Every structure is written in C-alpha cells, then in structure tokens.
User: What shape does this take?
Amino acid sequence: MTFDVREFARTARGSHRGELDLESLTAADVDADAARLIRTMRDLERHTMERMRNVLVTATHKDARVTAFLTTWAFEKFWIADALDAVLEATGHDLTSPAGARRRSRVERVERRGPIARAIAGNIAGPELVAAHVTTGLIDEWVTTAAYRRLGEIAPAVRAVADLIIELKERHILFLAEDAQRRLADSARARKLSLKEVKRSAWPLGAIDRSAEDRSSFEAVVFGGKDGAARAAEIADRIAALPGLGAAAPIVAARLVP
Amino acid sequence: MAFDIDKYTANSEPVTWTDLDLESFETNPLPESSLRVLRYMCDVEYHTVCYLRDLLTTPSHKEPEVGSFMTMWNREEFWHGEALAAVLGKHGITVDFDQLKASRLKLGWKDRLDPIKQSLLGGLVGHDFVAVHMAWGAANEWSANAAYLRMARQENHPVLAELLKRIAAQETKHVAFYASQARDRLEKSKKAQVIARFALSKFWAPVGSTISPDSEVTHVMGHLFAGAEGRKLIRSIDSHIAKLPGMQGLTIVESALDKRGISGEGEGTPDALPLEETVAVETQTA
Assistant: This one.
C-alpha cells in the first residue's frame, strides 16, 4: 500500500493543548531526569528547520512528494514541541535547556558541516541521496519513539502525552519506512550513500547541537542498563532488516548506549 | 506594530475550499489566458519549500519567531498550491507531485548553486541579512496579495473570487509578519538598510520569475497589471515598500513591469466584480 501524502497533509494535527489533561500534573510527577529528557526531546523536535535545511540543499528538494511530507511533518513536530513545553509549564519545570559545552568528537565533525559543504556534497552525490535522508529520518523516528516510551516509564503521569506523540510519529514512520525501503531496494548507489550516512550520524538527529551533558543524560536514561541495551538492539535489528544496511546496525547500537 | 506569533501559529489553518462549488467551473470554465495565470500562481505556491530552503541557509531561521513563522507559512503556501490545483483539475489540468518534481529538475544548475550563493551572502552580511530577507519577503507577499485580489476582481466567477480572497487573506498575515519584522530590524541598523535597498533595487524580480519561463512571467504580469488600473495597484505596492526604513523612493515593482514592456496605459484586463480590497495594509489580523 502506498502512503497517501495528501491524506496525511489533510489530517495533520495541530495544537494538543486542548486535548491534554495537564491541570492535575504537579512538579512531583516529573523528576529532574524526566524533565531533562522532556527538554531534550522538545529541543530535538523543534530542530526541524535545521533538518529541513540540510535536506533541502540537496537534490531531495526536487522530490515534491517528499517535500509535501516534510511540510506537514515539520508542522506536526512544531506542535509536539509545544505539547512538551506545556508539560514543563504545568509541572513548574524550567523551560530553557541549560547551556553547556557541546560534545566534540572527531567522528562527528562531518555532522557539523554547514549548508555550503552539504550543498556541494549533495550535488556530487546526486538524486540517490534522498534515500539517505529518508533512511536516517526513519532511524531517528525509531530512536525518538524509544525515548518517548521510556519517558512514559520514568514519568507515568505524562504517559498520555508520550503515547500521543508516539501515535503521531507512527504516520511519520509509515511514510519514511515505505519510502526508504523502496529507494534502498531500487538502487545500489542509494544503499551505498545511505550506509555511509547512517554510519556517521549522531543520534537522535540534531544531537550534535545539544549540550554534552544533555546527550549523556539522554543515552543513560533511554539506552542505559540492560533494558536500554535491549532497546538499542531492537533498533539495530530493524536497521539490519533494511536493504544494504546490515553493516550499520551494530555501529548505531554502539553509539546509542552510554 | 508587533506581530503576535503565538496567535498566528495557533490560528494557522489550511485554506478551505470543500464548501465551494468547484463544479461550477465545469459549466462556467475560466478562459485559457486566466488558466495560465492560475497555473503560474499554483507553481509559485508549491515552490515555497524551495524558497524556504534558500532562506534556511541564511542566519534568519535561527531566530525562534522566524522559525515558527516559516513552519506555518510554508504549510499555508503548500495548501494554496493544493487549492489552485483543485481548480486547475476541474479544467483538466493535472498538477501532481511527479510533475512538480519534473519541473524542479528542469531548473538545473542555477537551482543547485542557489543555496551556496545564499549561504555565502548570508555569511558575509551576517545578522543584518535577516532584515534583507524580511524586506524581500514583504515585497513578495504584498505583490502576491495584490495579484490574488486583482484576479478575484477580473474574473467574472464568484467561486474563484471567493477562493482567491481566502488565499489573499492568509497572504495578508504573511505581509504583516514580514513587514513588521523588516521595519523593526531596518530601524535598528543603517547597514541593513543599505544592503536591503541595494538587494531590492538590483535583484528583486516578480515572484515566480526564477522558476517560470519568461513568456509566462510576462503573460501573468500583463494579465494582472497592464493598463491604468493595474498600474495604480503596482504603485500602491511600491508605496508600501517605500515606507520601510531606508527604502524611500524605491519603485521596484513598477520598474519590473516597465522592463517587461507592460504598459501602464489603456484598460488592460478590466475588473468584472466589484471588490473593495486592493493591497494589504500591514495590520495584524491573526
């Protein structure tokens, strides 16, 4: 079955403040770890314009079906971030993420490249780079969905919010999975470019712009311990099932766990 | 005048047309010449995501308000494309994603180099580039708004007129955002004024001229703005632009028409329906 982008656009969901019951929440419902995770997720969800830029400076912007999806995807993520803000407001937690130094690692240098380098690299890579964008987008949705599941565990009072976000992400995943699967299956070059991109990405996408402390906390809370490792392994299994991405699966899993 | 971004984002909705009787186009179709104009407008609206790309390579998107606005603006414009595509569809003209992709592919190298040029420019100019972007956006939205309202008056078609008025009403909000941002930022920086004035006077061209063939641009501009009545409208857009700090005396839209040899005399395509609106004044209606 083919994902109906027009239907997705037509039924996009905006502000959630009306449907969320946040009145009963108190500061005690969300501890410091959960609040930090919420802030990190909010920052990542709000990162859409950077994500759009990195994708649009390449040939991906030519694909009108993908850009129509991204237009609605960015809209829904805007309101996901707003819902997370609403939780922080209701529980009296600080809305601003504490400033902190970024993590500086050699492996991630390529992730920090600006739009010029990306545009040039994108022009060289050509249209098959779309596959790499939808594949990394898909893996990112898997990673963030795991984070929202974890949020529901560590802060049961906000589980309804986490579940709502997971539900919204299901449609994003449907589109990205279908598109990635098709492009990867169709072209060896798409597989090669995607493998390279997945191997070198920092997760979740946009993490490189978060502080080193927030990232370590994210990894510890979501992918720490035995259960966390199992969550990372589950994501690795899904990656391994994508055409040509087997070699990237263990690398992603290793980067997710603290 | 401050623009209330929270109010704008909370009220941002796709333009609606399901309540309009689009079947009426089957019994009362639009003439060929008007369909060419609609097709052009439809392409421009769908193409917003590509403009968004160019803007995102500059420092502008880092400002939270600007990022929020762009998210909603890009989506509203996408829906304008969908609405116009629905009207074109009633005339047997299909605008689908594959076909849009094909036309984007045709843009070739210029389009591929644009993001690089924009980033370099944004990097050179720095923070003041945001003001340039806002002034440019205001000029575009004023002309888009005027174009929709003018066409609504020209075509003797109540359903089309209603749809175009709805689209224009959203463009009015875009005008409010861009113009209030441009005014605030230009007021604060003499350098931004100088660069914006230079950019607008040297490089501004009618919206859509970078993506459509010259013949289509000239047809659309002529259809909408030829003649004394059209010229009056164009001057009104220019007068709004000229009111922005440091833009006194600019007549970029009129010059663009003159360059294309579009006459400011005679009747042009006359108005068929009386409508009061002409060009959006910058008011917050969100």
